[in-house]
Amino acid sequence: MNWHFLGGTSEVTGSKHILETQQARILFDCGLFQGRRKQADEINHTLDFTVESIDAMVLSHAHIDHCGNIPTLAKRGYRNPVHATSATADLLPVMLRDSAHIHESDAAYLNQKTNRKGLPPIIPLYTLEDAEASFPLLRVHQYNEPIELPGGIRLTHVDAGHILGAALALIEVPREGRAPLRIGYAVDLGRHNLPLLEDPVQMTDLDVLICESTYGGREHGDALDAEAALGDAINRTIARGGKVLLPTFALERAQEIIYHISSLRAKNVIPDVPVFMDSPMAQALSTIFEKNHTYFDAEYKALHKQVGSVITPPWLTFTATVDESKSITSSKEPSIVLAASGMAEHGRILHHLKHGIEDEKNLVLFVGYQAANTLGRRLINGESPVRIFGDMFDVGAEIGVINAFSAHAGRSELRDYIQKARPKQVFLVHGEQEQREALAKLVQDELRIPVALPNNGDVVDFDALD
């Protein structure tokens, strides 16, 4: 009963695992590794297994670092089921079509250079055709629905509280003459009190817990404080006649922000200024959120009953065309503008920053993680001037950060989840090494539970842990 740690162990990207028994091999997630181009290209082309050996796949959720390499499976001939929640199955086509477009566009851009140098053409990791070939493989399930996998393995998805449709997996593997081995797959684990989402479901009495450690050494601000902080930031900016420029991730974070603005407007806490969602992808995903409203929590349902549509309200303007986006940048009217990308590395947010970052009336508000070397991180670090589209701009706008929006469990939340799961052994993955080590020390010192920090390529016989 071997567990193969193939990706996303000492980093927060490229999640990929295999459970192997004598009867079956089950793949858990097949995410894209995201990093420096050459390294990412090499890792993403290397699956470390043959697709013919995989009897079924289980997908935790629709973030690209967990689902983004599924088209490569289809490209190489995989035709077995991909098990996911119904909401994840709705989100996946939007995410994978966008990913395929990026791969094809990047290859086309790079080939302009290779053609001039007489070098062989660059082939995209996968195409739109490959992405669409993977959609018929989806098998749709609900939370708490028992799923029978090959080899007699029993799977139950429970709510991860991370993003719409995200699932933790309770895996029960049959053993001759003994009780089934209970494995908890908690990658990614969400938080309590996040907007829209139900809280994570606690798995218990586990033999093995495979747990994320993204923030194993860091605490978050209280999620309940996020809305008040957002309201204060909006009021402060509008009062001085400025714009709130919000770099935001198209999946989940954009919808969360609109939820909070809906709530703030309903309470008359903020003025009724124009609000723009300048992201066609976020618009498509928001429509899927509305369709899957049954996944949402009691607070969402109460607000929906009060104001009607919460995710796509009538006062929210979606901008489909580039010309519509340009009209926002040219306007001097106080407003709230949400645009991708969340780390301000690409996308329409760069046009808004180019036109607004020097204006001291404006606020650039970050509500998500900013990786090292991104424009978002440089702005948070106080750098000025900064380069946008090749030109240098002095930073006159206020730069703000709200840390309470993270969709990943923080240090204390991870500790509490592990303690209540009562596992005999914990394997920490999905975290930079410093974060993993900090959480491992906490679990060992306070909970007295054995902890392992596997590396990519490690194989562990879970049946031998007894």
CATH topology of the largest domain: Metallo-beta-lactamase, Chain A
User: What integer value in Å does the Rg equal?
Assistant: 23 Å
Q: Which residues form runs of ≥5 with pLDDT under 50? A: none
* Average pLDDT level: 94
Instruction: Work out the strand percent.
Output: 15-25%
Task: State the major sheet.
Answer: 7 strands, mixed
Number of helical stretches of at least 4 residues: 14
Which CATH architecture of the largest domain is right? Answer: 4-Layer Sandwich
CATH class categorisation of the largest domain: Alpha Beta
CATH superfamily of the largest domain, called what?
Answer: Ribonuclease Z/Hydroxyacylglutathione hydrolase-like
Instruction: Report, as a whole number of angstroms, the end-to-end distance.
Output: 12 Å
- Placed side by side, the strands forming the largest sheet appear as 6-5-4-3-2-1-22
Oligomeric organization of the protein chains: single chain
Structural class: alpha/beta
Residues in helix, %: 25-40%
In total, the number of domains comes to: 2
Number of strands: 22
The best one-word shape is: globular
Please characterize this protein's 3D structure.
By secondary structure, the chain is α/β, with parallel strands linked by helices. It folds into 2 domains: 2-218 and 407-465, Metallo-beta-lactamase, Chain A (4-Layer Sandwich), CATH 3.60.15; 223-405, 3-Layer(aba) Sandwich (Rossmann fold). The chain is 34% helix and 21% strand. The chain has 14 helices and 22 strands. It has helices spanning 37-45, 64-67, 70-75, 86-117, 128-134, 226-239, 253-266, 280-291, 298-307, 322-330, 349-356, 375-380, 411-421, 433-447, and strands spanning 2-7, 16-20, 25-30, 56-58, 82-85, 138-141, 146-148, 154-159, 167-175, 178-186, 208-212, 244-247, 275-278, 316-318, 336-339, 363-366, 386-388, 391-393, 398-401, 425-429, 451-452, 459-461. The strands form 4 sheets. A 7-stranded mixed beta sheet has the order 6-5-4-3-2-1-22. Helix 14 links the parallel strand 20 (425-429) and strand 21 (451-452). It is globular.
